[in-house]
Write a structure and sequence with these properties.
- With about 260 residues, this protein is mostly helical.
- The protein has one domain.
- Helices cover about 75% and strands about 5% of the residues.
- It has a two-stranded antiparallel ribbon with strand order 1-2.
- The longest helix is centred in the last third of the chain and has 45 residues, at about 215-260.
- The protein is elongated.
- The termini are far apart.
Length: about 260
């Protein structure tokens, strides 16, 4: 007859529950995995499968009861770590979406908005197009697998402990989040510059020939130039987007490798 003590049972529960919490946090916030169109059962099933695969390689866990107050604190901490890792990768998509918003507004397509199920809001057509392009680069480069590899490594570099993870994790995530604005402007800068030159030319043309209807010819020209520049720059967007993904992975590794406890 097999007998189990309460300590052994708590150890088994903790060995699955705490890694599963970090994994589910990443799955909920990471691109593609956390998409709203993916059913919750699929997300939970994927998290459980990854937890069963990664649990044997997880370092020794703290001797805390998972149902105690200390166990609850560890659970919340693992959820925050997983959400932070997934959100760090999601920032790259936010950069591209901002570039699409700036481009669409400059082209005059700010009124052409559609419902985005990912952000549960309305975004411009150019923004959604660039977001789909970014997803293709993300999947074609196997970055979703690299993200899972970084998650597995995080259990070694940032083990599950009862000690607080410190504030460096949040500081790194906030600093990386600042790249949304700079990267978004950089990605949209070629198209915005071309449209600025186009608007200057239209202004000079209007001054030279006041009888021209600026509103009649201005919008078709700016939209046409915007689409032409978008077609010209598309083959070159993969490189900066790939660099942003590499920066995101670097930020994730920095978050999980240097998040040390605060020293009072």
């Amino acid at each position: 007859m097999i007998t189990l003590t309460s300590a052994e049972l708590n150890t088994w529960i903790a060995s699955i529950l705490w890694p599963l919490t970090r994994i589910l946090g990443l799955v909920a916030a990471a691109p593609v995995f956390g998409n709203i169109s993916v059913p919750a059962r699929v997300k939970i099933g994927l998290g459980v499968m990854l937890a069963l695969v990664m649990a044997p390689s997880v370092p020794a866990l703290p001797a805390e009861d998972p149902m105690s107050y200390a166990g609850l604190i560890i659970l919340i901490q693992q959820l925050i770590i997983g959400l932070g890792m997934g959100f760090a990768m999601r920032i790259v998509f936010a950069c591209v979406e901002m570039a699409g918003e700036v481009t669409g507004m400059t082209m005059g397509l700010g009124f052409a908005t559609f419902y985005d199920p990912q952000s549960q809001g309305h975004s411009s057509a150019i923004s959604q197009f660039l977001s789909l392009l970014t997803i293709l680069v993300y999947l074609a480069s196997n970055l979703h697998l690299v993200l899972l590899s970084a998650l597995a490594d995080s259990f070694v570099s940032l083990p599950i402990t009862a000690a607080p993870a410190g504030t460096h994790l949040a500081q790194t995530l906030v600093a990386w989040g600042g790249r949304i604005f700079s990267a978004g402007v950089q990605l949209s800068l070629p198209i915005v510059a071309a449209l600025l030159i186009t608007n200057l030319a239209l202004g000079i043309l209007t001054r030279a020939a006041p009888q021209l209807n600026l509103f009649g010819i201005g919008f078709p020209i700016t939209i046409g130039v915007g689409f032409v520049m978008l077609a010209v720059t598309l083959p070159y967007l993969a490189t900066p987007i790939g660099n942003l993904f590499q920066e995101s992975l670097g930020a994730i590794r920095q978050m999980t490798a240097t998040a040390l406890p605060d020293i009072p």
